[in-house]
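Researcher: We're reviewing a set of sequences before deciding which ones to prioritize for further study. For each one, I'd like a predicted 3D structure that I can look through quickly. This is HAD-IC family P-type ATPase. If possible, include the structure in token form so it fits the rest of the review sheet.
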Amino acid sequence: VVTDMVFADHVTDHRALEQILYAMEGQSEHPLAEAVVSFLKNRKVNPVEILNFNSITGKGVRAEALDGTQYLVGNHKLMVEKGIAMDDNLGHMVEGLEQEAKTVIYFGGGGKVKAILAIMDSIKESSKEAIREMQGNGMEVYMMTGDNKMTAEAVSQQVGIKSYEAEVLPSEKADFVKRLQESGKVVAMVGDGINDSQALAQADV
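Model: Here's the predicted structure for HAD-IC family P-type ATPase, in token form for your review sheet.
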């Protein structure tokens, strides 16, 4: 669920940007994109036409508006890689959101971060129970996520997971599974979405 959407101070055309964001996330296959689409739909936003949509595995998506402006939606790693600058106010806000165990998505265009969105997963009580039961049976439980370290740490503490890997790409998830297997462990993997397919294929179960 999207809990927050904050535009940068220099942004005035909020509605137009929301329409572009909707169009981009509507074409994305990432599970978090569904939360963004649902949020914008509830705000009565209508998507606009975009060009040259492209998915960047493990990082986000890219597209072009009809006026030729390039837009990106994704994680912090993508913004840094593409040289997208963020103002200090948004930067401070990101820190606070991540400490609340929220996932922050960045929306950039024209070389600047236009907005950030915070997404929070509600953790099911049954998840905590399942982890406790597995650990009680002598299993080691690991969490792997493309999310930032602060959010991963907060979530792992909430569910009782002692070991986690943050900011990992899909291929790195598969490598981690392989390392566990090479150390003599039988690995069962649970995942959702295309980003986990390599690790799921690598796992024993």
